[in-house]
Each structure stands twice: as C-alpha cells, then as structure tokens.
Amino acid sequence: MIPEASYDVIVVGAGPAGSTAAMYAAKKGASVLLLDKKREIGSPIQCAGFLPDASEVQALIREARLPDTLKNYPDSCVLQRIDTQRIVTPNCNTKEFAVRGTVLDRRRYDQFLAEQAAKTGAELMIKTRVTKIEGTTVETSGVFGKHRIKAKAIIGADGPNSLVAKSKGLALKPESRETSVALEYQVRNVDIDPSSLEMYFGKDFVPGGYAWIFPEGQDRANVGIGIRSGMAEKGVSAKEYLHRFMRDHPLAGPKLKNCIIMNVIAGIIPVNGAPERTSTENTLIVGDAAGHVFATNGGGIPPAMIAGKVAGETAAEFTFGMCRLEDYDRRWRAQFGPTLETSVQARKLMDGIMKSDTLMNAAFKLISPEHMKVMQCGKLPGPVKIGLQALNRGKK
C-alpha cells in the first residue's frame, strides 16, 4: 500500500484505543490513516484480555458514552464467558461477587476493531513504524517503504512508551511515572473454575500487585502477575515471582501443577493516571499512551475505547473547523476523569498496606464484596477510604 501525501487524521497504533479512534474519526467523514508497527494486528498479545460486559461498565461509569464495538462484537472473539470474580487474600480467605464479562481472544478482537475502522473508511498500514514526527508530518518506515505523510491532527495510541507523547511534550515526567510489570503465561491442562476470574494477593508472591488466573476455556487459562519493581525483593525477577506463585501458592499451586505453558506475554502497565495535558493544538494521546488505565486492577480496555471514541470524534470535528483539539481533554475527563483519578488514589492507599500481609488481610476483611466490585472500575466508597486511611496510619 502506498499512502496518500496527506490525511485529515493520522492514528498511530491499532490497539483498542487507536482502532476505535480511527473508526469514529472516519465515521464523521475525516480521511484517516491508521498505522501499526506489528506484522499482524493483535500479535503479540499485550494483556490478559478480560472485558466486563458493557452493562457493567455503564452502571459504574454512568457518564461514559460507550463505543458500539465495546458493546457488540463477534462470538469468535470470546474465549470464555465469566460470571464470577474471586479475590484470594494473603491468608487464603476468599471473597467473590457476580460480574458479567468475557475473556477475549485479543488477537481476534484487535483485528475485529481494526477491520471495523477500515470498513468505516480508515486506511490501514501494518508493519509500519513511525520514526519521527515534525509538527504534523509523520515519517514512517516499514514493509511499504519510507514515507513522509502530512496530517491536520495526530492521535497517539502507541502504548505506554508513546513516541507521539514524547514528541509533543505530553508524556508524564519520569518522577511522576508509575508502572507495573506484567508477565503472563497462556497455559493448558489446568484444573480451574471455567467461569470465574481469580485474583490473588500477598507480598511473597506479588509485591505491590496481584496474581491472576483468567480462564480461557475448560482446561485453559491465562496465568500472570502484575508487580511494581520498586516493591519487589532485591534481585527477584517477575519470572521468579510468577513461578513461585504457580508452584508454591497453597490454593493456586494444585490447580496449576500439571500445566503446559503455550505462550509467554509481557508488558508494562501505567498505573498513575493521565498527565495534566493529553492534547496540544494538533495532537491527542489516548489509551496507555495517556494513562487511561484503572490503577486499582490495571484494566485498560474500557477506558481506552471510551477515550478513543472521544479522540476520533474530536479530531474529525477539529479538521472541519468545529472545535479546538484541546477540547478533547475536557471531553474525556467529563466522562471518566474522576473515576480514573479515584482509582489512582485507591492504589496509593493500598501501596503501604501491600507491604504487610497482616495489613492486607485486615484491609480485605473490611471491604465487602460489593465494594470490591465497584473498586474494580475506579470507585472508592467512603467507608473503604476511611478504613484504608486508618490502616495506613496504624502501620506508622
């Protein structure tokens, strides 16, 4: 494919955020070029892929206007339907609550989203890396050659180490940047509850985060950990923590003892919210590039796609002289900004508590299953906040 010399909107990155942005910009009549550096959309996989049902997302983020593709997608994208989420405390007590959702085949889902963008009118170029951005001119290199392409607006959906964000001064400063390292295995031959998500806590297995078992079918699962390197034991790698969890955890170990590892997945998850600005006069950032991740559980698909819709619509309106591109900041924050900020507050309250299994057990004892559920989407109920603050004061 040979691109045109210019487009109204260039979107960098064809994950859920970028493909959603491209689709909604094209829907509004803008000419759109969607670029992705991968050889195949959705591969390698970047996350465990749990997607709450749209009704669950809407109930918890009432102001959000959900993209159609967050509500409706083919059954071929679904690995497993989920009806329960189970929390396992350090002392192996469990709490659970009902939750509707799916574990996605991320490769197929990401390809579905990119296909919808293309069907709407966006042009798609894969195996194409952005090498430089000057103003609104994007330089690319890849399987289709080297090009200089002009845009009226650029949307950066290029992940936590976003070149677009860095080029435009939108990236979080290093001292404000907080990330979690995720390491996951897709495994077979496991003895699990196929309709339940399980999350495990405990500083000996997952310092500053949690481990999970997400079912991908009757005897298949995604098993992984998300840990904060600054809270880990010195000299202990994420791989060692994951193997320790799979081998030694009293509840998880027996379920996984005969597992066969089929795939290794690794990534970085931003957990400190969005930067002060996510737009300039000619550029927007969205998804992981903008910190659109709920810090309480690392969930990024719903906020990325909600913001992607806003980004695409705003960019298209901007190219037609209907708004300023900086309006994007106000628009996405009106839909889920407070929720995102609250999730960061909750994560910070839990940071100190997570250094002690005794404190973690006490924290989970005071949090009801109902409150656990709303905390997954960035809410922090008053009684929980007061209790966590008290536990933090008590540890000093």
TrEMBL record:
Keyword Secreted applies:
no
InterPro entries assigned:
FAD/NAD-bd_sf (IPR036188), Geranylgeranyl_Rdtase_fam (IPR011777), Geranylgeranyl_reductase (IPR050407), GGR_cat (IPR054715)
Q: Which domain of life is it from?
A: Archaea
Gene Ontology terms describing biological process:
phospholipid biosynthetic process
Q: What is its EC number?
A: 1.3.1.83
Going by the UniProt record, its keywords in alphabetical order are:
FAD, Flavoprotein, Lipid biosynthesis, Lipid metabolism, Oxidoreductase, Phospholipid biosynthesis, Phospholipid metabolism
Whether Repeat counts among this entry's keywords is: no
EC class (word) = oxidoreductase
Q: Which residues form the Digeranylgeranylglycerophospholipid reductase catalytic domain?
A: 180-265
Q: Which GO terms describe its molecular function?
A: oxidoreductase activity, acting on the CH-CH group of donors, NAD or NADP as acceptor
Q: Which PANTHER family match?
A: DIGERANYLGERANYLGLYCEROPHOSPHOLIPID REDUCTASE, GERANYLGERANYL DIPHOSPHATE REDUCTASE
Q: Which NCBIfam families match?
A: GG-red-SF
Q: What is the protein name for this chain?
A: Geranylgeranyl diphosphate reductase
